[in-house]
UniProtKB/TrEMBL annotation, chain A:
The protein's name: YeeE/YedE family protein
Organism: Noviherbaspirillum cavernae
Locations listed in the record: Cell inner membrane
Transmembrane segments annotated in the record for this chain: 12-31, 52-72, 84-101, 122-142
Record keywords: Cell inner membrane, Cell membrane, Membrane, Transmembrane, Transmembrane helix, Transport
From TrEMBL, chain B:
Record-annotated membrane-spanning stretches: 41-61, 82-100, 106-130
Organism: Noviherbaspirillum cavernae
Keywords linked to the UniProt accession: Membrane, Transmembrane, Transmembrane helix
InterPro entries assigned to the protein according to its UniProt record, in alphabetical order: DUF6691
Protein name: YeeE/YedE family protein
Amino acid sequence: MTIDWSNFTPWSSLAGGILIGIAAAMFILFNGRIAGISGILGGLLRPRKGDVGWRAAFIIGLILAPLVYGFFAPLPAVHIDTGAGLIVLAGILVGVGTRYGSGCTSGHGVCGLSRLSPRSMVATAAFMSAGFLTVYVARHVVG
Amino acid sequence: MQLLFALLAGLVFGGGLILSGMADPSKVIGFLDLAGKWDPSLAFVMAGAIGVGFLAFRLAGRRANSLLGEPMQLPTSRHIDRRLVLGSLAFGVGWGLAGFCPGPALLNVAVGGGKVILFVLAMLGGMALFELSAKMFARRAG
C-alpha cells in the first residue's frame, strides 16, 4: 500500500465530516429522524400521508447544496470514469442493496455507527469490504 | 417548521459532502483502492461525522420527543440477518463500481451531468424493484 499524498485532504475531509455530523445531529434532535439518505429516498416510492413532505424537503436541500455552496466557494470538479453500462449496473445494485440492507453510508455508516448499533457495524463492514474488493478487481485484476 | 429543518439538514449534509471531497466519485474510489495509491481522506470524513453524531445520538436517546415535538424515531431492530448482510454486500459492489452512494449521487443531480442522472434513475429503478418484490412477498405470505 502506498499513500496518495497528492490527493490526501485530511483537514477539509475532517471539516466536511463534522458538517455531515452536524446535519445528522440537527435531523435527529429537531425532526426526530435518522439522516439515512437511501431510506429517506426509498420512502418516497411508497408514499404515505404525512410522510412525504419532510422526505422531499431533505432531498431538495441536498440537491440545492451545490448551488448554495457555489455562492461561497468554487465547486470541486466531479470525475466519473465509469462507463454508462457499469453506471446503470452500479445504480441498480446500490438501489436494491441499500433497501434490502436497510441503509447506506449515511444511515448505517454515519448514524448507525454513532449509535454504536451492532446491526450497522455489520452492515458497514459488509459494504466496505465489498467496496474494497470490487475496486481491487476492477482496477487490478480486470482493469 | 419540520419541513424547514429537513431542508436545512439536507443543505448542511450536502455542504459537508462537497467540502469533504466525497461528492466526487474518483475521491471515493481512491479510498477504496487499497492496492493502488490509497487516499485515506474518507476515514477522516467518518471520524468527523461520527464524533459529532455520537454526542447527538446520546442526547437524542434520552429524549422521547424532538425539539420540534416530533416523536423520536430511533431504529429498534437488532436483528442481524441474511437480508442485512446480502443487501449491504450488493450495495458495496455498486458503490465500488461507480464511486457513488445515494447521498453524493442525489447531490450531483442538478450539476453533475448525464451519468449522474443515469445512475440516479438506475438507483430509483433498483429501489422500485425492492418495493415490488416486498409487495409480492407480502401477498404470498398474506
